[in-house]
Amino acid sequence: MSKSRIIEQYEMRPKKWVSYLLSIIVIVAILFPAISTISFNGFSKSGLVVAKNIFLGIINPDMSFILDFSELGLPFLLLETAAIAFLGTLIGLIISVPLAFLAARNITNKFVSNIFVTIITIIRTFPVFVYGLMFIRVTGPGAFAGVLTLALTSIGMLSKLFIEVIEDLDTGIIESLDASGCNTLQKIRFGIIPQLMTNFVSILIYRFDINVKNASVLGLVGAGGIGAPLQFAMAGSKWDLVGSLLLGLIVLVLIIETCSDKIRAKLANG
Amino acid sequence: MINYLKSLFVPETFTLSNGKVVKSKFNWTIYIVIALFFLIILAGKFTGFSFETLVDKGANFFDILVKMVKVDFAYFPKIVGPMIDTLTMSLLGTVIGAVFALPAAFICSANLNKNRIFIRIVKTLISIIRTVPVLVYALILTYIFGIGTFAGFLSLTIFTFSICTKMLYEQIETLDNGPFEAMESTGSDKVKATWIAIFPQLRSHYFSTMLYNFEMNVRSAAILGYVGAGGIGLILNENIGWRKYGRVGMILIVLIVTVIAIESLSRFIRKRLG
């Protein structure tokens, strides 16, 4: 008896194939016209040669360039990239902390918070390059423009994540400090900073990690770092140089990513 | 090593009223502050940071901005095409990247595959792919496939693949492994067990990862044109080069509205997906 009931229930199982079929039809209907706009012109004439050469360049990098410790060598470029990311993140931090406090719902009223959230959103949606080009007007091409650009682009993400942390503040602690007779500064020092510190540092390190990648790209608009030499090397068909630049970039980002993951895991576990 | 360093500094000792001696906890703050201070000065030297230029020429920043405010609305019809290119590039890149990411994530999840060495190798490879920024991929691929949307699409696909795989295997490793083991013990093979026992748990997360990636890809696709990989970045770059800032303003408005619309839509859907 029980077996027939099981079979009966099994026959009554929801028939999903209709919804599956419908969703597949919808997806194909969206994707099919899209495919036709992506024009595949085949490999460009020298495409395969280029691909092979870049690959060979990565395997067989230009050692004299890697070990060149002057201003033209790889170590200097990588350090410059890291320095741009580091300063950019710090300046971004200095600007985004007050912005985040002003935009947090539990600190200011709804009206003020909405204004600042909108400002942050607008700052965030501008493409990095536009900022880069605008700052080159200020500082001339070079690493300094990169620092300022990264500072401005970091604001969006940093303050958005900071707001979330601030809105999670446990007000009970502050109230109890108040009850024990602390003044405002003491409340900030012992009630607010300890709650925010680890999260803020963790977010900051995460953004630094992202900024190292961004800094390497900014060079393409002439804002310092490893991007510009990469583009010149590609344009000049110096494939072993391209290979060593890519290798340096990969190693730098991997090291920083690993360190940042380790530190953040440690911060999260206390 | 750290303990050795700590032992160099003699901690302050206190004698409590009950005669117990306690040592003060080691405080890192001051050393971290000093280290940061030197790093900042060093980085400032490296990047040529100067407040004077900032004060002197800071106003130049608004030069372009002021010119962009005089938006050239007549340019709008010419933006629609490239914008659609950008969107299709990111849509296709996301979907195809995410489709390839699914099996890759299954292969290198520690709870489905017990071969540690294999997992280590695949995960390292994927993080190496992930370290290269999208724009660098686009730069290289335009040299290989020629200038156009295909290079942009492919670089987005590669990037989505790597980041999706990471997000998915991190999620899979937290999933309930019981059904999978139960199916394996009844004699089904790994592929079938994964499909029946793991994928349904992952499905909503998979789609929300895909949407999140789509959001990110629209943003990056917008700048891919800078290296010639098609889309709205191409006309953005052209018009900046020609100093037609009114048009640039129009392009930015279209871009910002699209990005915000897609973000809100994706956030809405992701909330529904849970």
Name the shape of chain B in a single word. Answer: flat
What count of helical segments of chain A does DSSP give?
12
CATH class wording of the largest domain in chain B: Mainly Alpha
Order of helices and strands of chain B: HEEHHHHHHHHHHH
The unreliable regions of chain A are none
The radius of gyration computed from the alpha-carbon positions of chain A, rounded to a whole number of angstroms, is: 26 Å
Please give a structural write-up:
- The complex is a heterodimer of chains A (270) and B (274).
- Chain A has two domains: 2-37; 50-269, MetI-like fold.
- Chain A contains twelve helices and no strands.
- Chain A has helices spanning 2-11, 17-37, 47-59, 63-66, 74-103, 110-125, 128-139, 143-167, 171-179, 184-218, 227-235, 239-269.
- Chain A is extended and about 70 Å long.
- The mean pLDDT of chain A is 84.
- Chain B has twelve helices and two strands.
- Chain B starts with a helix and ends with a helix.
- The mean pLDDT of chain B is 85.
- Classes of the chains: A mainly alpha (270), B mainly alpha (274).
- Chains A and B meet through helix 2, helix 3, helix 5, helix 6 and helix 7 of A and helix 2, helix 3, helix 4, helix 5 and helix 6 of B.
